[in-house]
Write a structure and sequence with these properties.
alpha+beta; six-stranded mixed sheet; about 260 residues; about 35% strand; 7 helices
Length: about 260
């Protein structure tokens, strides 16, 4: 299955679905993650990429942090609207609520950053709570794993704005039931997407592991550190080594350069 974000629409609802595989393996390799950590990071990455589907501003991105009650870690993924996705996991305090914690940060060029934190009985419930509280829409969501492919499916109800649209009030629920064979499937086959043929496809975005870090951005971050501190961490040749915490790319920066 090729990595992609697919956007569909039908009368009364929109459907978004993400498939990720190689990008997750590259994140696992970049950070030497266990299979369990890679799986949970794959879920966060699929969710983040699915949530970019509604973003229309240039350079917009979505950051998703997942925290599970049985793990003292944050699983952080960032997805760009051009299809790039990256992520990492970091140590964190364990959740005391016994629920899955989902934090979503939308990075928007015009309106600035907007963050929302919700909790749910499981990952899918947390996503639904996010749509309801932060986006003010009803949505049904599924986070699925087919072998090494991570999938996030959302079915979002269009708002009812007039009496003529009342016939679409339960469109998302109807489409969710129609898609149940896909949601409950145990494997992903070449014909798995046939169920989506009844919908109108409005967009398809190829996805890949990728980052926005650059030598310039790393140098800018180092410029905020005191000069004497930089000298302490530099090697004998006056270079500081930095690894991007999201993609793992290595930079060797000459601190003598302005």
């Amino acid at each position: 299955m090729k990595e992609k974000l697919l956007k569909y629409t039908c009368e009364g609802a929109r459907i978004h679905i993400v498939f990720l595989n190689d990008a997750v393996r590259q994140m696992q390799k970049a950070h030497a993650l266990s299979e369990e950590d890679a799986s949970r990071l794959g879920q966060a990455a699929a969710i983040a990429q699915c949530l970019t589907a509604d973003r229309k501003e240039d350079n917009a991105s979505v950051a998703v942090t997942l925290r599970f009650p049985d793990a003292g870690k944050n699983y952080v993924a960032i997805a760009e609207i051009d299809g790039r996705v990256r992520g990492m996991c970091e140590n964190a305090e364990r959740s005391v609520s016994g629920e899955v914690v989902l934090e979503v940060t939308q990075k928007l060029t015009v309106r600035g950053d907007y963050s929302s934190i919700v909790e749910g009985a499981d990952t899918e419930d947390a996503i639904a709570q996010y749509y309801k509280t932060s986006q003010q829409v009803e949505a049904r969501c599924a986070v699925l794993t087919f072998g090494d492919t991570y999938c996030c499916l959302s079915v979002e109800q269009f708002p009812i704005t007039c009496e003529a649209e009342e016939i679409y009030r339960h469109a998302a629920d109807r489409e969710w039931e129609y898609l149940r064979p896909f949601i409950t499937a145990t494997e992903l086959t070449d014909s798995s997407l046939d169920i989506f043929k009844k919908y109108r496809k409005v967009a398809e975005t190829p996805l890949k592991f990728g980052c926005t870090c650059t030598r310039r951005s790393v140098r800018a971050a180092l410029s905020a550190i005191d000069e004497e501190e930089l000298k302490k961490i530099a090697d004998g040749d006056g270079f500081v080594s930095v690894n991007c915490k999201y993609c793992g790319k290595h930079y060797r920066i000459d601190i003598s350069e302005g």
